Amino acid sequence: MNRRRAKKTSGRLVGAARAGDVPALRRLLRAGARVDAPDRYGTTALYAACVQGAAPAVRALLDAGASPSLESGSGDEGTPLCAAACWGYADVVAELLRYGADPAQREDGGRGLSPLAWADRCGHEHVAELLGGGPTAGAARARPRPSCAHGTEPAH
């Protein structure tokens, strides 16, 4: 696949992931889309699906070989597990962990927040428990919570 077509296909893959469109994801992957290739903004399909809480799309991408710990984009993006933890998508967190996502991996090349810190900061106790934090994992719950926006706001 030539470079221009590959970029276009990556953009479509990210769009299908963001929409939770599993049939389109499978079609694009069969047509040669690289599962971990970012779109022109640096966003990966797995990250986009995680921000939306699209568990079936997350599962399809992981089944196709997507790396569960690959950081997406720059700035307000990060790891798929951090995104799912931030938004409180326990089913997506569980899938990522099942496929080997590292619950201790911090974003921003190790300088940012961990998935547990995001879950704790955003008040998602059920997700914090999945990540090994327990119901009283952090003192952050006692403090006013800063913004929990991680990546693009979910479409639903």
TrEMBL record:
Record bears the keyword Repeat: yes
UniProt-listed InterPro entries: Ankyrin_rpt, Ankyrin_rpt-contain_sf
Keywords carried by this UniProt record: ANK repeat, Kinase, Repeat, Serine/threonine-protein kinase, Transferase
Spans of repeat ANK: 41-73, 76-108
Domain of life: Bacteria
Region of interest: Disordered: 133-156
GO molecular function: protein serine/threonine kinase activity
Protein name: Ankyrin repeat domain-containing protein
Organism: Streptomyces subrutilus
